Amino acid sequence: MTVIEAHGLRKTFGATIALDGVDLRVEEGRIVGLIGLNGAGKSTALNAILGLTPYQGELKVLGRDPWSERDQLMRDVSFIADVAVLPRWLRVSQALDYVAGVHPRFDRAKAESFLAKTAIGRASKVGELSKGMVVQLHLALVMAIDAKLLVLDEPTLGLDILYRKQFYDSLLNDYYDSSRTIVVTTHQVEELQHILTDLMFIHRGRIIFGCSMEEFEARYLEVMVHPERIAAARALKPIHERQVLGRSILLFDHADRRQLAALGDVRTPGIADLFLAVIGNEAGETQGVAR
């Protein structure tokens, strides 16, 4: 089943083009990372998917037009934004009461079970909770909704590394299954690399790269080249080169691992390394990265 499908998706704010003819397709049961710089169009794309902004072009989410059929769509979609949206005066128990009263697919017992794993008291006010606890509360409320699509916009922004790890562990172990689809944007790309099934890069309002994580791991290799082998490494046409502590690190697409091993230390690159290579290619700084 196709969960999200867009063709020629476009959104402008005055003279600013936020989305510039975006084409994308997300299948059921996938965990998709949408990666881009600030202002690249990530949040605008998510707002269009959630029916929060009008747009030009074609967009279907779970078979519905999110702008004209938002009421029906949101029965099957959950969302965690990059900022806390719960009122500071609201008590945890009241948040549970509210969601139970407005969402027909909310399982209060399940939310209570998630909260039991935290230090969050039911009588506590949102304003008394740490930022990490607020995110845990959001996650407990959302994971207790039987939604088909979960959209996360920078969900761990500002959290320390412990809370970030707990967030993604809970997401993967307590929420995700093959019938649910997750779309997430984040700047901490390396921390979610292990949970993604698919990767998309957005730049200046366009999707410039997309692949599955299986393809990513099979296709790209990074080599920290021995200084005396740098000329031989460059002759193999890397798609990107950077310097770290005086050593050259070259990124290759569809290269032979055994051939690269003779040049230096070989490893699978991080998502951030590939992102920099693709962005560089867009700027005309590198060649050979397929879109």
CATH architectural group of the largest domain: 3-Layer(aba) Sandwich
| Whole-angstrom Rg | 21 Å
State the CATH class of the largest domain: Alpha Beta
The structure class reads alpha/beta
CATH topology heading of the largest domain: Rossmann fold
**Through-space gap between termini:** 24 Å
User: What would the principal axes of the Cα set say about the shape?
Assistant: globular
H/E order of the elements?
A: EEEHEHEHHHEHEHEEHEHEEHEH
Q: Can you describe what's shown?
A:
The chain is an alpha/beta fold and 291 residues long. It folds into two domains: 2-204, Rossmann fold, CATH 3.40.50.300; 215-282. Helix content is 32%, strand content 29%. It has eleven helices and 13 strands. The strands form three sheets. A six-stranded mixed sheet has the order 5-6-7-3-8-9, sandwiched between helices. Strand 6, helix 6 (161-175) and strand 7 form a beta-alpha-beta unit. Helix 4 (108-115) runs antiparallel to helix 5 and helix 5 runs parallel beside helix 6. The longest helix has 15 residues, at 161-175. Mean pLDDT is 90; it is low at 285-291.
Short description:
By secondary structure, the chain is of the alpha/beta class. The protein has helices at 42-49, 70-73, 92-102, 108-115, 131-143, 161-175, 189-192, 213-219, 230-234, 257-261, 271-282, and strands spanning 2-13, 16-27, 31-35, 56-61, 77-80, 149-153, 181-185, 198-203, 206-212, 220-225, 240-244, 247-253, 264-267.
